[in-house]
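FAQ: What does the model actually see?

It sees only this:
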Amino acid sequence: MQSTRRQFFASASLSALAAGAVIGQGGSGWAADRPAPAGECRPGSTPLDEPLRWLSAKTGLKITSIETFTQGTGLSIVRISTQDGSAGYGQIAPSEADISAMVLHRKVARYVLGADPADFEMISDRVIEENYKFPWSFICRALGGVDTAIWDLLGKRAGKSVCALLGGQPRPIPVYGSSMSRTIQPEAEAARLRQLRDTLGFRAFKVRVGKRCGHDEDQWPGRTAALVPAVRKAVADHVDLLADANSCYTPRKAIEVGRLLEDHGYSHFEEPCPYWELEWTAEVAAALKIPVAGGEQDNDLAQWRRMLRMKAVRIAQPDVCYAGGFTRALRVAKLAQQAGLVCVPHSSNLSLVTVFTLHLFGAIPNTGRHVEFTIEPNSWKDLYRPALEVRDGRVAIPDGPGWGVAINPQWLAKAQHQETKSG
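And it is asked to produce this:
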């Protein structure tokens, strides 16, 4: 019998994954009597299973209000409230956030209002299903704002951080310094990474190679060939190095650049091909020893299953805000874990996305070695407190209830406010 859409969504839920669903035939295929290779993990149950069952217990509350606070096109904060006055804060993905906020009130809010916050999985699935004519990017960005606010509310009601809700322990997490620049000269990039290693204790960095959607072009001729060895020489062999191509290459060129990275001891090659060309990425992953990473742009869980089944990536990189929230990012992490792969979520700025990512990283069992942490100037330094700080190459997971940070009331007061209520 053909499964219904609701059965399909149920099969993709966290509870179904916790019950042992796997990707493809037998998950990753790693034998149970030997450790998984570096960059991969063993399929099986995780410490998340029992906390997720506990979190699904009804609260008896209903979501009665969804508010957005939007500054320009850059950022929108979401607040949800219940009838007893409980509230939680989340965030829509940065960039064109004003459009996402409009989508939230027009296309998402109606499917959230009146629901119990403990039904976060049902809410997530319902929003996606009811908007099947309007799939993915803006719907998922809007949903992400609501979903992250729900998790904040649940944590505050329990008096626990989100990480602790899921059985994790808030603690300092190693981070990699993530460069966002392709305009910096290779020698200058190498020098600033060496300085950050020495002053803040970073033990890993990511650099940008090629050109975004570059059709095999470099940002300027010879930049990547100069950058890759210059950075390695500057930071020494004990520092992990990662490279992001942002959908630049065809398979032939990606393999060429990947071998250059291998020659200089890099450990992560991100989005080498246009992210929608899964077969290209799988070809590159099969040809190289360096693990290929990807998935930050992907918000369709079926696409994630295809990606993992064809072994297009060895490192899964969901973005909490792009994927549709913490609930859906957890599902991607579980899918990766069932496929025997690590999850290193994407968090390329210091809005709340890095806060969310730290909690996710602190709770899931199949993490990589580091959380992404931008080294570029912080556009939202007045958004929340306490600020995230790098100390000895680590950033602490905020340990207060919910996300463990307080949104600045002055930031909210300067924002455009919109509210949708039940009734």
